[in-house]
Amino acid sequence: MKTLFFMKWLVLTLVILTCSQQAILAQNVTDSLSQQKTAPKPKVEYAPTGGNNSLAKQFFSLRDKSNSYQEYKVIKQTSLNTFWKNVQDTLTQARKQLQAIQGNTNSQLQAVQAKMDGQQAELTRLKSSVAERDEKLKTIAYNTDRINVFGLNLLKDTYIYLNIAIISILVLLLGGAIYKYKDSNKVAVSKVNEFETVKSELNGCRQKLRERETVMGRELQTERNKIEELNQTIASLKKKVH
Question: Which residue ranges does UniProt annotate as crossing the membrane (predicted)?
Fold first, then answer.
């Protein structure tokens, strides 16, 4: 866009400089004509403006081929009119070229503006697409970094640390339970052993009591037998006495 404006400005500057130079030359020629003596106007014959001679070359040729009078130049009116006609034709052609350049420049500007509008629309679409893609990437990154646990979105690092803490607490509780179980088991085994010892002693005492009861029962039966024998002896003695 800047290059196009620069080219337009450069072309316009060159055209304006050319027109200004030609206008200055024409003004100088007009001043020279006003200083000449009044003479009857001959029939003006315009020379063709074709060829590759520029106005500057025509001016220098007109000056060099003209007669000199003191510090003045005597120029034929026909030649001067021809040069003036060439100046006007050149200016007209320059104006047409300028208008053509302006029209072409305006067309190019419109084409460039339309292209810029299309590029702006494409840029807007790309920005929207990039923004949508960034939003999707943010959503993916958010979902990647987080995990849903019981309806709570937790960071995966937080979830890992939380699991480590819970597992550590459970391990400590399990270790405490195992320690308590072993300690209780030792106490239970000790109590069972004591119970077995007491039970064994109790069974021994019971066995001794049974044996003693048996012995005492036998002794009692013996004593009863003796008493029975004594009673029978006494009864027989009583019979004998009577």
Answer: 159-179
- Cα(128)–Cα(120) distance, integer angstroms: 12
190 backbone φψ class: left, alpha, beta (φ>0; ψ -120 to 50): alpha
Report whether 80 contacts 35 (CB < 8 A): no
Q: What is the DSSP letter of 221?
A: H
Amino acid at 211: E
Q: Which helix (H) or strand (E) holds 146?
A: strand 146-149
Q: H-helix or E-strand containing 59?
A: helix 55-65
Q: What share of the chain is helix, strand, coil (3-state, %, to 5)?
A: 85, 5, 10
- The secondary structure element, H or E, covering residue 152 is strand 152-155
Q: What is the tens place of the pLDDT at every residue in 169-183?
A: 999 999 999 998 888
DSSP tag of 41 = P
> Beta-carbon neighbour count of residue 237 at 10 Å?
10
